[in-house]
Amino acid sequence: MLETGFEVRQRERRLVTTRALVAGALVILGFALILLRLLHLQVNRHEYFSVLSQDNRVKVQPVPPTRGLIYDTKGRLLADNHPSFALEITLEKVEDLAQTIDALSELIRIEEKDRARFARLRRQRMRFQGVPIRLNLTEAEVARFAVNGHRFAGVDVRAELIRTYPYGALTAHALGYVGRINEQELASIDTSQYAGTNFIGKVGTEKTHETLLHGRVGYQQVEVNARGRILRTLESTPPQPGQDLLLYLDVSLQQAATDALGGRRGVVVAMDPRDGGVLALVSEPSFDPNLFVEGISHADYRELLYSPDKPLFNRAVRGQYPPGSTVKPFIGLGGLALGVVGPEKTTYCPGYFSLPGQRHRFRCWRRGGHGAVTLEQAMVQSCDVYFYSLAHQMGIGQLHEFLSRFGFGTRTGIDVSGELPGLLPSPEWKQRVRKRLWYPGETLILGIGQGSFLATPLQLAAATAALANRGRFIQPRLARASRLPGTAAAQPLPLASRRVDAGDPRNWDRMIADMTQVVEGRRGTARRIRSPHYRIAGKTGTAQVFTVGQKESYDAAKVPERMRDHALFTAFAPVEDPRIVIAVLVENGGHGGATAAPVARQVMDAYLEGLGLIPTHETENGG
Amino acid sequence: MAVRFTPSLPDRDMEPGEPGLLRRIHIDAPLLLGLLALCGFGLLVLYSASGQDPLTVRRQLIRLGVAFGVMLVLAQVPPTSLRRWSLGIYAAGVGMLVAVLLFGETGKGAQRWLEVGGLRFQPSELLKIALPMAAAWLLSLRPLPPRLLEILLVVMLTLIPVLLIAEQPDLGTSLLVASAGVMVLFIAGLSWSMILGLASLAAAIAPLLWLVMHDYQRARVLTFLNPESDPLGTGYHIIQSQIAIGSGGIYGKGWLNGTQSHLEFLPERHTDFIFAVVGEELGFSGILALLALYLVVILRGLLIAVRAPDNYGRLLAGGLTLVFFVYVFVNTGMVTGLLPVVGIPLPLVSYGGTSMVTLLAGFGLVMGVATHKK
């Protein structure tokens, strides 16, 4: 039977109405179910839950682990935790904040900067969290507050372990520092692991080894009274303390390197070529890391940040400089490895080099030229023309490939945060970044470590270590091992190494012999640092900061100090059994042989004396 | 079995006479009053649950203002226009869900947000409205009750976003969206045998759901079954909220006097578990009052559905209202320990913005159905 439209609509209407009524009934039923449940909880079992609520005094609290300590290679403590007492105000428990602080200041010294910090931190924390109004209370102040504390609801003394760096600025760039966890960090860490922890590694090795140093959080069940105060601990899962870090770093060598720089801006990176251990990592000037732990004041921070000497800048791992002539050993080795040059083959140096069919002259540092030079002579006298020619013959493709084997253009992966990769230019890079074609001339200046080529002092040290090791490239690292506090056995940290291929193994010996002549040879550019006790292999370098025009000449006296060349020197010693590899950079120091090489000699002396390999310096006679 | 039932409810739409001022700006006064009362109640509880933090209350007030604004704007749209846009809005919503999975922002282990020109946006919220719209549109194409083909199409329309949202993963929202599809079908007169069939199908799918669940979701189900097994982990929520509610008794400990909530034993006390604060501080009587307000809103919504001039309006208003009920039921069930912990807030009371806007936007559509003549 067909229905009319009206009938259909009537039927639909009835249908929906019925369903709505059923739904309404179900809704009431659902609410009734909830209410029944509530009757059960709130009436039947009210007594039971009231008792539980009264007794609900067991809270779970995190117990933060103690941060691991950091020791140098001789067991000297570089990063320590020392207890400090802070006065904290919990905002939600305080009635009149201003009045409380005023009353407190009669008892305990509260300065303007304390109030400023309080105002700043207060905005970052929840109302039930404590905000410090004074840090580093003296024992007398703690005692004074203990007597009067009952007058101040919501104000507590809290003991906290504060990181200290006994050597301060000396180890700042290597270790880095910890600081209070900020909101960005909070988003990237496992917050339960950091419950109750206030500090986190911000930079340096403190940051790289954060997981190891931090440890694992523990928990305790505590009984609290009705006002939330802890009465006793019921049960606890102890935290797993952070592991101690044992470094290769040698504080006395670090000091020797800093002294050798003598207040000049610069870098000393010293490595043990046998295991990649960083013995010294100095970037001068430095800063006091202890300032950062509790939160540095704006004035102090501004002073550090805007100082023209850039003390916060870690030149060793973040300073990207043109490597200058210090890359010549690697390019010479490339020439040998690829068979482009032989040890006996000479190149004529008239004082300049021109590409075939071009008039532009790429100048040698010696205007008059070196005449016919072999690879050894080119290395010893640092002849630029020889390397222009070699680079030209190798071509940018082979040059780029061979240099990248030594880690140029990539981060070494050292366990110090913030490392930069430098820049090993290539036509592809130039096309991608600068949207320009590669010029043949750029290949030439790459051959003497100039142009867009940039390397960090750490990269130079690591590459030189691979040379000293005859092709074993080891990733530099600061930490040797980790150790659970209270245990004797240290767990060595993994060592990463790879082989660098340079063709005939004798090529290494040839290049090392040439580098030895740089120091030991009669005409070597670093002959003045020759030592009577051991033999040094090295290479001087000068990195241009200021570009000299085609027809001009560079006159150091006419160039402002900060535009003068950087002095570079890379070396290892003793040649026969290398124990120390070193890269020195003195900013605006001029010529590498004159400025940087003596710094390296001083550091190598100190190290080899310490090892007992050479007689100790007669300090009494030294004047 | 045919239910013989003749509607005897008063039908004001048929009455002659000038509509009132509120009606002309498309506001349903009883519904508005119910919602305002609920929000007012919610603000009072929130003030206590947040530890008397005026900032939290002020933020919630701002969100409420925005949400009510959205509601009033949407109420102006005639259901005939809504009906035309239904499928388009639905398709756009599903498209954005796919985009979220592809390039969405991750927060707390789940990927729910889409950022468009600096604005963060949660497309799964849109589906809570877009799905009932699309389902109502589809079912209003032919006379009710729906035939098998339409039922299957609605099931498909529902499953697509539900699975996409479950993938994010957001179990609570996917549950709500799924319930929206089911509720529209129910109002549309899905036969009882069909309802039975779908229920058994769901029961059969449930074990499969277990397989695709994330570990934390499985843990929640397990602790629901036995909260004491993990008193310091997931079970902590359930135990603490029951203690809070149970200790409240009939009259409660008094506003601002809840010890469980104020001593921070109760987790999520101003968001998902705010119902426990009501139970502790205002007791059974306070909860009775709150549930009565919810009942007023829900029954009013159903009445609007019954009185709607066409099937689209009926299904949309009925579906949206019943989803609101599911919100209330799942949250209160979870807080009282009847249901497993699913992240669904107590509507219009819990602290938080996104769901508030969606809920009131939905009620805006319901008001539109109530106040626009065909």
List how many beta strands of chain A DSSP finds.
23
Overall outline of chain A: globular
**What profile does the largest beta sheet of chain A have?**
7 strands, mixed
Unreliable segments of 5+ consecutive residues of chain B: 1-17
Please tell me how large the radius of gyration of chain A is: 34 Å
SSE topology string of chain B: HHHHEEEHHHHHHHHHH
Mean pLDDT of chain B: 83
N- to C-terminal distance of chain A: 125 Å
Mean pLDDT of chain A: 86
Domain count of chain A = 2
| Order of the strands making up the biggest sheet of chain B | 1-2-3
Shape of chain B: globular
CATH class of the largest domain in chain A: Alpha Beta
Q: What's the architecture of the largest domain in chain A in CATH terms?
A: 3-Layer(aba) Sandwich
Distance between the termini of chain B: 32 Å
Q: Beta-strand level of the residues of chain A, as a percent range?
A: 15-25%
Query: Rg of chain B to the nearest angstrom?
Result: 21 Å
Give the domain tally of chain B.
1
What class, by secondary structure content of chain A? Answer: alpha+beta
Kindly name the structural category of chain B: mainly alpha
Give the DSSP E fraction of chain B (strand runs of 2 or more residues): under 5%
